[in-house]
Design a protein that fits this description.
By secondary structure, the chain is an alpha+beta fold. The protein has nine helices and 17 strands. The strands form three sheets. The protein has an eight-stranded mixed beta sheet, with helices on both faces. A hairpin with a 5-residue loop joins strand 1 and strand 2.
C-alpha cells in the first residue's frame, strides 16, 4: 500500500508537499533526526557508530514531471508549459489532474507525426468558455498525469510517477532495514530534480557528504524501439556506471558490485547515453564528491504509465541496506 500511495500522490516539481507527507509518515519512527529545508527536501539522519565512518548522502527525488497552465483561451482550452521532460507524443489522449482535483484530457492541435512541441498540446477540462474554465483552473496551476497503479504479470507493476517514486520506496525500505549503521547516513528525499537537480544541490551543500548515492530509474532496453543499451526489467538492480550527468567513482562501483556478489544480489551494469540523476548534483557539490548510483530498469520512462519489476526493486533495497555498512577506505 505504501508504494501505491507513493505513485498516486501529487508531487510535480516545486509542489512536493503531499508526497513529502506520505513519506514522512512512513519513515519518521526510524529517524534520529528529521529536517525539512527551504526547498522542501526531506532529510532523514541516522547516526553511525563505526570508527572510520563516512557521511553518506543517499538521494531519491520526490518530484514528477508535470504541466503548468500558461493560458486559457476563449473556448476554455488550456495551454501549458512543461515542468520537466514531457514526452509530447506519449501525452496525447491521456488524462491530467490538477492539484484541486480537476481533470482533463490532453489533445493536440497539429499533425501527430510532427508533434514535438508541448505548446502544440492543449488540455480540455470540458469547459465551454474561458470564464467557465477559470472557475476550476488558474494561470500557474500545475497538473500531472493520471496513471492508475496496476499489478501486471511477471511481478511487474505499472503506474505514473514511477520516476522516481520507486527510488523513494527503495530509500524508505532500506532505512527500515538498517538497524545498526556503521556510517552516518543521510536519507534525502529531494525536490525539483526534474527541473535541474535543484533539491539535491542544496542538500549536498548542507550535508557535505563523503560520498553520494542516487536512487532512481534507468532506461530499460528490452522492448521494441527502446534504443541502444543493455538494461532489462527483471535483470536485477542496476549498478550505475555512467549517464549524462555523472561518471561514477570507480572504487565505489567496484565496491557496489562486490557487495552484490558477496550477498548474492542479482545485478546489471547500468550505462545510459543521456539522462541524469541526483548523483550529478552531489558529484559537483562543494569541492567534489565521490558518487555512485543504484537504479531500477524502467520501461516507458516519463510516460503516463511506466513499468518496473518488483524483483529488481527488492534487489535494490537489499543492495542499499548492505552497501551503506561498508567500511570505505578512501
Amino acid at each position: 500500500m505504501f508504494l501505491q500511495n507513493l505513485t498516486q500522490a501529487f508531487g510535480v516539481s516545486g509542489y512536493e508537499k503531499q508526497i513529502r507527507e506520505v513519506i514522512l509518515e512512513e519513515v519518521k519512527d526510524y529517524a534520529d533526526e528529521v529536517t525539512v529545508d527551504a526547498l522542501g527536501n526531506l532529510i532523514i539522519f541516522k547516526k553511525g557508530t563505526g570508527s572510520n565512518k563516512k557521511k553518506i548522502m543517499m538521494s531519491a527525488h520526490m518530484d514528477e514531471i508535470g504541466f503548468q497552465v500558461m493560458k486559457i483561451d476563449d473556448k476554455g482550452f488550456i495551454t501549458a508549459r512543461a515542468l520537466g521532460g514531457i514526452p509530447v507524443q506519449a501525452s496525447v489522449m491521456n488524462r491530467v489532474q490538477f492539484r484541486n482535483g480537476t481533470q482533463g484530457i490532453v489533445a493536440n492541435t497539429c499533425d501527430f507525426d510532427g508533434l514535438k512541441n508541448i505548446k502544440k498540446l492543449y488540455i480540455d477540462i470540458g469547459a465551454s468558455s474561458k470564464e467557465e474554465a477559470e472557475k476550476y483552473v488558474k494561470i500557474g496551476d500545475v497538473g500531472c498525469y493520471v496513471g492508475e497503479y496496476l499489478e501486471l504479470k511477471g511481478n511487474n507493476i505499472c503506474a505514473k510517477a514511477i520516476d522516481d517514486r520507486i527510488g523513494c520506496y527503495i530509500l524508505a525500505e532500506a532505512l527500515k532495514k538498517v538497524t545498526d549503521s556503521y556510517n552516518d547516513l543521510y536519507f534525502v528525499f529531494s525536490t525539483q530534480e526534474e527541473v535541474g537537480l535543484r533539491g539535491a544541490t542544496v542538500a549536498a551543500n548542507r550535508i557535505q557528504p563523503d560520498l553520494g548515492i542516487a536512487l532512481d530509474v534507468t532506461i530499460s532496453n528490452d522492448y521494441p524501439n527502446s534504443g541502444d543499451g543493455a538494461n532489462k526489467i527483471g535483470g536485477g538492480t542496476a549498478v550505475k556506471i555512467s549517464d549524462g550527468s555523472v561518471i561514477c567513482d570507480e572504487y565505489l562501483v567496484d565496491e557496489m558490485i562486490k557487495c552484490c556478489e558477496d550477498h548474492e544480489i542479482q545485478y546489471q551494469r547500468d550505462v545510459i547515453d543521456g539522462g541524469g540523476t541526483d548523483a550529478g548534483a552531489i558529484n559537483r557539490s562543494n569541492f567534489g564528491v565521490r558518487c555512485a548510483g543504484i537504479s531500477v530498469a524502467t520501461r516507458y520512462v516519463h510516460g503516463p504509465n511506466a513499468v518496473v519489476n518488483m524483483d529488481d526493486v527488492k534487489a535494490s533495497i537489499d543492495l542499499l541496506s548492505k552497501y551503506v555498512n561498508v567500511e570505505f577506505t578512501f
